[in-house]
Each structure stands twice: as C-alpha cells, then as structure tokens.
Amino acid sequence: MNSYIFHTENIFRVREGYYQKIAVPKGKRLNEAKVHELLLGADVFINVPILKHHSSSTLTVGMKNLMGVVWDRSYWHRNDQHQCIADFASFRKPTLTVVDAYNVLKQNGPRGVTAGDVVSMKSLIVSTDLVAADAAAAKLFGADPGDIRHIQLAAEMNLGRIDLDALSINRIKL
Amino acid sequence: MGLHRLKLFRVGVSVLFFALIAFLFLDFRSIATPSVTEGLLYLQFVPSLLKFVNAAAVGAAGFIVIVVATVLFGRIYCSSVCPLGTLQDGIIYLARKKQKRRRFQFIKPHNVLRYSILALTVLVPIAGSGFLLNLLDPFSTFGRIFSNLVRPLVLVVNNAAAIALERLGVHTLYLVRWAVIAPLSAGVSMAMLILVTWLAATRGRLYCNTVCPVGALLGLVSKVSFLRIGIDSGACKGCKLCEGVCKAGCIDSGKKTVDFSRCIACYNCLAVCSKEGLRFENRWKRRVLAAQPDRGRRGFILNSGIYLLGLAGFTEQTKKIIQSKPTTIPVCVTSPVSPPGSGSVMHFTGTCTACHLCVSACPSRVLVPSFLEFGFSGMMQPRMNFHSGHCNYDCTICMNICPAGAILPLTVEKKKLTQIGVAKFIKENCVVYTDNTDCGACSEHCPTKAVDMVPYPNPVNKRLKIPEVKPEYCIGCGGCEHACPTKPYKAIYVDGNPVHKLAQKPVVKKIEEKLDNNADFPF
Fold first, then answer.
1. Closest CB from A111, A114, A122 relative to B508
2. Shortest Cα distance from B465 to chain A (angstroms)?
3. Which of left, alpha, beta for B80 (phi over 0: left; psi -120 to 50: alpha)?
4. Alpha-carbon distance B272 to nearest alpha carbon in chain A (angstroms)
5. CA distance B219 to B199
C-alpha cells in the first residue's frame, strides 16, 4: 500500500514532470488540473493543513491546502479561485483531514509579518468530511463558514456538510 | 635553481585563482560564503578600484596591492590573478598542443591602439558612461563569459544528470532553475569569448597588450618597476628559445631586448633558458631610464586623476524604461529598479562593472542582465526583473558578494526596510475588478503587507476584497508583481526609486487572545 501525507510545503519533488493532467468532471470553472503523481498513486490520502488567515482565500484549511498539489496555481487566481478550490475538492476526497490549529496565524496571512500575528489555540480537528473540517476550523478561527466562499460553494456542490449542528462531533478536551 | 621554478609557481597560483573564481560563477548550490567570495576577489583590479573610489571602501585596497606589486615586480597580475589571462593561457596551451612546435615571435608594440583604448576607457566615464570600462574590464568579461555561457551548460549537465539519477533512485543531485536568458549579454559574452579565443590561439596574449585597459595601465606602471626581466648579453647565446615561448611577444632576441611593459610575467622565458641568459635586473639601481621624462607615466598619472574625478563626479542620468509591450492600461515605469544595497541607480550604474556575479548568485533569479533599461551605458548591468523572480525578504547575498561595491552590504534588518521601489496598482487590470472574483496573489506574497486586501463594493454584490497599496510600507521586492496572474499586463508592478528610501517598519497590532481551556467549542 502506498500512503503519503500531504502537507503542501513539504513536497520536495517539485518539477512539472511529476504532475499529471487529470480531469475534474464536476468542476464548474476548473475542468482539468495537473496533479502531483504522489497523490495520484496513493491508496490512502490524508490531508494535514494548518489553520491560518489568508489574504487571497480568507482562510487556509483543508480545501485550500490542496492548491499545493497542483502545478498551475495562477490559473486558479485568474479564474474565480474560490470556485476552483471547491471544484478541486470534487476530484478526490481525502480519506482523512487533520486540521492543525495548534498555533494559528490570525492575521496578515499567509506569511505573517511578525510573531504577533500568531495565537496559540492548541486545537486539532479530525474529520473524514473535508468540508465539515473546514467549516469547524472556520468557526474555531472566529469566522462564519458561510462567509468563506469556497466552503459555501463546496457545500452547495454536496462535497461535504457545512451544517455542523446536524453532525455527530466528538468534542474532546485534554 | 630558482628562476626556472618561477614558472611552475606562477602556473600553480594562476590555476588556483582561475579555478576558485570560475567556481564562484558556477556555484549553483551556493557553497561559497560571501566572505570567501570577498577574499577571493579582493585583488581583482577594476572592481576593487571602483569599490575603493565609489563606495569609499578603504578596505577594498586590492588594486593598490596590485599597483605596488607591479611597481616592484611587473605585471604579475596578468598571469596569476587575472582569470581572463589564465583563460587565455589555457586556450594557448590547447592551441599549441594541436599545432606542434608553433613558436611565438616578437611583435611590435601596438602602443597607439592600447593607450588609446586605455585613454578612452578612462575618459569615457567623464562623459557619463562606464560602458567601455564594463565591456573591457577583464574580470567582468570573464564573469560574463562564465555566467552567461558556461553556467547554462553546467546547469544542463547537472539537470540531465539529476533526472537520469532520479530514475535510478539516486537523489544526490537536484534540479536547478534555469537562469533567465539575456540575449544581449550572452551575445556580448560570446563575441568577447570568440575574440579572446581567436587572439589567444593565433597570437598569444596580444589581447592583453592591445585591448585590455588593465594590461595597458599596468604596462605603464611596469615601465618603472623595481625589477624587470632583461637579457644578459654576455650569457645569452642567441638561441631564440625565449622568444619562441613568449606569449606576449615582447622578447626581441635579435636585439636582446625585452619590452617589459608588455611582459605579462608568465616566466616561460626563465623556464626555457638553460644558459641563465635572462635575469631580473634592478632598474632603480641603474637609473638608466629615469633620465628621460616618461611620457607614458605622466599620461598615466594625469589620466588617473581625470579618471577618479570622472568616477566620483559624473555618472549617467537614468533613462526612462522603454515600454515595449502594448498595454491597454500603460504600465508607467519611470525608473528601473537597482538592487537593495546599491543606494541609488546612479551609484549602481556608476560602479557596477557588469561582471554578473550577483546574477549567478541570486537565488530567486530576480537579478537579470539589463538591456537598455539603465540606458546605453548601463547595458548588461543587472537590474531587478520582477517577471523572472522577486527579491527574497531575508536574502542579502548580492550585496555581500559584489566585488565592485556597486551593491553594498546591509544588515538583514536594514535590508527589510530598504525601499528600492514602490508597488503601483492598476485597478483596471486586476482580476477582482475585471471578473468580480477574489484573487489576492499579490497580497499573499507581500512580506510587509504593504499590499493588503480591503473590502471591495462591486456590481454583483459579492463579498470581495481588492488590493490596496500602502506605499510607506512597500520595499519594492516585487513579490506582488511576480505573483500577479493577469496576462499579458500585470495589475500591480514596482516602479523603481532612483534613490532608495527607507520604508516604515510594518506596525502589527498584536492579537490579544488568550487560550481559554474552559471555553465551549465554537461549534
């Protein structure tokens, strides 16, 4: 079994040759993308984003994190990136999404200007539902998931649940 | 002993200098530290002179060391320190291997040509152009050849090998980004390489005694040197062996004279003479030549004075960048961008010799040889090209390796506040305006959040944000311009500051949020 953990910053095999063209049949703006072969060859796909503020997409959580496995990101920027982010979530659903919200960049994302931008939240969200994980993370961040357009769009595309009240959630404090 | 072994010593020193300096230009894995680079290039004549004069860097006195050495021993620079000299020696060696028994002959000095070129090189900066100096400085010529021609070849080999090894599961090598191709610089480098190769293969070190201004200048100095090579007419048997190995063509074995102003101190003659017919003569003791006024020397002193004045007082005016692509919303660049540490475009263009060491070393490939952006006389001097990259916020590599002092060292903290240009936003080109969709790639790359995203009321009533530039925080790194995805015209670009300024330190309101372990989950 091949299993790889994707964390966008840590993919070191970065060369266009490693990215293979795939179709995104359910995509509204994104109909095809070049995706890293490690993801395409993996049996199990665990997505481990960190939660942070982002000047382009409002927030980086699970779906936004997957922008890191495609080659031509500037296409997304030019072509309604929230829709592209939601579209790509329809390509392959992660087996598990683990949102690292231990230290959270609350402003000036995605790179931050000083350490004062970071807040220690010591939290972790684990879900098999990518959209639900993103929605919960948005709440944790202090935002309404419906205001983060790609989360709203993904929910409308039935890629996952945004209505957290209807879900069974284990809330664990240590 | 003694004199025979001098050649071997010279070969050793020159090969060492050549190999190390060549390595600096090919060092794509960034192994050499800035201090190593500085030490290695300390003695390079023109960069050191410019650094000393223009950057008031008293420590950069390598050229004085060379002048003193030349006053004592003649042009040892030309056969030991100068990488272009050693490159020619390599070509001569190979050419002579092919054409066996080829011998050099005494060549009449081309004094008018070499001193005219020297005078022009010295005088043209007074008219406001360092172009001729940049074109003819041997170190910079060497640098451009290696940076523009040899380095790409090395990268091809590395990348081909990396891909091949990768297939075998070996990851020792990795792929390196290509350099940006600058046709003008590559063309000039190729032309110089062809000229130097042709002259070296057919006429020895004629280049150094006709074209090279450093050679001509040191030649003038060596006319009054303490020691000179001369022929002992008593010991000399007239075998002409020395003339046959003299790459400079400065030994006239018939007349038993040596034109020491053209002697490049290769010591081949000393190595080949078995009769001790050649020797070092102490010229200061005999004072034969001192009886006549030395016109060349007077010219040198006069010219040096004019030269220094010219360098200190006059530099070119920056020309406006030429906008080549048709734009619906014209990108109005009023000044090209010179690298951080250069202080101003004027200082940069007046000091840079276009050796392209910074172009080779720049990890983000933002430094690219210019075409006409700095004007005609600034041709080939590197500029910040934000289409090919952007300046890394924490990086100070170029300023720590510049041998000419065109880019001067700044601390990382100072560099982060040095405003080399300011971002200008063209709303009408922006995706948010044209498509009513979010983008924010510019703000994402901005290290100081001088480009921030602000709410944008729009016709379709979406929650959109659009970039807003706060120029006081912008340092002109070009992250925004590089990341902007609009084609063919960017919606945000950096306009250069002719004189660099200080940006304000980004003020960040610290988030006051305490972790409350007893708080409820927000969902």
1. A114
2. 8
3. alpha
4. 56
5. 19
What's the CA gap between A173 and B356, in Å, rounded? Answer: 58
Please report the pLDDT score of residue B12 as a whole number: 95
Contact between residue A94 and residue A47 where contact means Cβ atoms under 8 Å apart: yes
* Whether the predicted pLDDT of B324 surpasses 60: no
Q: Residue B308: pLDDT above 70?
A: no
Q: Model's pTM, two decimal places?
A: 0.82
Say what percent of chain B tops pLDDT 90. Answer: 58
Pick the closest to residue B300 from B407, B172, B198, B214 (CA basis).
B214
What pLDDT is attached to residue B306? 45
* Tally of residues, chain B: 523
Nearest chain A Cα distance for residue B415, angstroms = 15
Closest CA to A150 of A65, A43, A33, A48: A65
- Chain B environment of A108 (Cβ under 8 Å): 449, 508
Residue of B10 and B319 predicted with greater confidence: B10
Residue B420: which of B480, B357, B473, B499 has the closest Cα?
A: B499
In order of A2, A21, A65, A128, B213, the CA distances from A44 in angstroms are 7, 20, 17, 12, 67
* Alpha-carbon separation of residue B521 from A48, A98, A124 (angstroms): 21, 17, 12
Among the partner-chain residues B431, B510, B513, the one whose CB lies closest to the CB of A77 is B431
Mean pLDDT within B413-436:
93
Find the helix or strand (DSSP H, E) in which A73 lies: helix A73-78
The phi and psi torsions of B281 (rounded to 5 degrees) equal -110, 140
Structure tokens at B111: 């004094």
Per CB-CB distance under 8 Å, the chain B contacts of A78 are 431, 435, 439, 485-487
Sign of CA dihedral A57, A58, A60, A61: negative
Predicted-complex ipTM score = 0.86
- Picking from B431, B508, B515, the nearest residue to A113 by CB comes out as B508
| Digit-coded pLDDT (tens) for B66-112 | 999 999 999 999 999 999 999 999 999 999 888 776 789 899 999 99
What integer pLDDT is reported at residue B300 of this predicted model? 52
Residue at B427: amino acid letter:
K
Distances (CA, A) of A26 to A87, A91, B335, B515: 7, 8, 47, 40
- What span, in angstroms and rounded, lies between the C-alpha atoms of B124 and B131? 8
Tell whether B449 lies on the interface with A, counting CB pairs under 8 A. yes
pLDDT at residue B316 in the model: 33
